[in-house]
């Protein structure tokens, strides 16, 4: 298994309270399967909102056998985390996941 960093772009079409943002980051934080802290070492920001825009990106660490599985797993994690704070696929549509880092095999 390999540890991948997957970036998923998205657009927020509804408001996100500070509490919901905190809960979203908490839901995403559990995506480091080996607790390797690759994100901390790489200065990984799980959730980035872009100024003057409704665009955001999620960066998740997932363990998978290949890139396609890593992308699928990251999308599942992202979708689940967004739903956990009340954001449907219509309220926060996601773009295609992209592998942006690989840590060992």
Distance between the termini: 6 Å
Order of helices and strands: EHHEEHE
> Mean pLDDT, as a whole number?
86
Largest sheet: 4 strands, antiparallel
Helix content: 25-40%
Report strand order across the widest sheet.
Answer: 2-3-1-4
Radius of gyration: 13 Å
Q: What is the percentage of strand-forming residues?
A: 25-35%
Total number of beta strands: 4
The structure class reads alpha+beta
Oligomeric form: single chain
Please tally the helical runs, counting DSSP H or I stretches of 4 or more residues.
3
Question: Any idea what the shape is?
Answer: elongated
Low-confidence stretches: 38-43
Task: Give a quick summary of the entry.
The protein has about 100 residues and is of the alpha+beta class. Helix content is about 30%, strand content about 30%.
Task: Describe the overall structure.
This protein has 105 residues and is of the alpha+beta class. Helices cover 32% and strands 28% of the residues. The chain has helices at 18-29, 38-41, 67-84; strands at 2-11, 47-49, 55-64, 98-103. Strands 2-3-1-4 form a four-stranded antiparallel beta sheet. Helix 1 packs antiparallel against helix 3. Residues 38-43 have low confidence and may be disordered.
Lay out the secondary structure.
Layout: E1 2-11, H1 18-29, H2 38-41, E2 47-49, E3 55-64, H3 67-84, E4 98-103
Antiparallel strand pairs: 1-3, 1-4, 2-3
Helix pairs in contact: 1-3
């Amino acid at each position: 298994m390999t540890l991948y960093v997957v970036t998923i772009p998205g657009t927020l079409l509804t408001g996100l309270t500070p509490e919901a943002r905190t809960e979203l980051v908490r839901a995403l934080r559990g995506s480091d399967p080996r607790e390797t802290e690759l994100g901390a070492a790489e200065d990984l920001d799980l959730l980035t909102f872009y100024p003057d825009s409704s665009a955001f990106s999620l960066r998740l660490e997932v363990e998978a056998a290949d890139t396609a599985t890593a992308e699928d797993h990251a999308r599942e994690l992202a979708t689940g985390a967004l739903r956990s704070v009340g954001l449907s696929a219509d309220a926060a549509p996601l773009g295609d996941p992209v592998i942006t880092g690989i840590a060992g095999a």
